[in-house]
Amino acid sequence: MPEGTGQVCAPVFANETPEPALENLFTRYLRNQLIQAGRLASAPSCASTIEGAVLGIWSSPTIIPNNYRISTTVRLRLVKEGQLLSETVVSGTEDYLQGRGNVLEAEANRQAALARLAEQLMRDGYDRLASTW
User: Fold this and answer.
1) Element (H, E) at 61
2) Pfam families, per this entry (predicted)?
3) Is pLDDT of 108 > 90?
4) How confident is the model at residue 5 (pLDDT cuts 50, 70, 90)?
5) What pLDDT score does 47 carry?
6) Closest CA to 78 of 34, 125, 129, 113
7) N or C end of the chain: smaller count of CB under 10 Å?
């Protein structure tokens, strides 16, 4: 983190997609990264924040039968006392099985793929923010 940043807060992300609850998923995985790095602060004691926004999400079939791909884009901004210190945008994809006619199985597979994607993107996003200074 930039010198003097200290510990940071991670407020709940903005969700600019029609997909409900994505903001909670990505916020949770960013906070996990901050906890692992020893950087997560409680809200009243932090001057620095990492603000996130889920900008887009798409799903599409792949050329493999019964296989789908989910893609998402997230923006992260490191802000200290209202001043933007760093910004990055991370994007990625994750494949999942659609399920053979079982809607619950298909949705469970999709949610598991979203969780894997959120974890990877928040790891990458945190690493990018931490390495820019």
Assistant:
1) strand 48-61
2) LptE
3) yes
4) low
5) 81
6) 129
7) C
What confidence tens digit (pLDDT) does each residue in 10-53 have?
999 999 999 999 999 999 999 999 999 888 887 777 888 999 99
Return d(Cα 39, Cα 31) in angstroms, integer.
9
Helix and strand tally (H, E) in the chain? 2, 5
User: Which residue, among 116, 111, 52, 43, has the nearest Cα to 79 in the 3D structure?
Assistant: 52
pTM: 0.90
Task: List the domain boundaries for the chain.
Answer: 8-131
132, 86 contact by CB (below 8 A): yes
CATH number listed for the domain at residues 8-131: 3.30.160.150
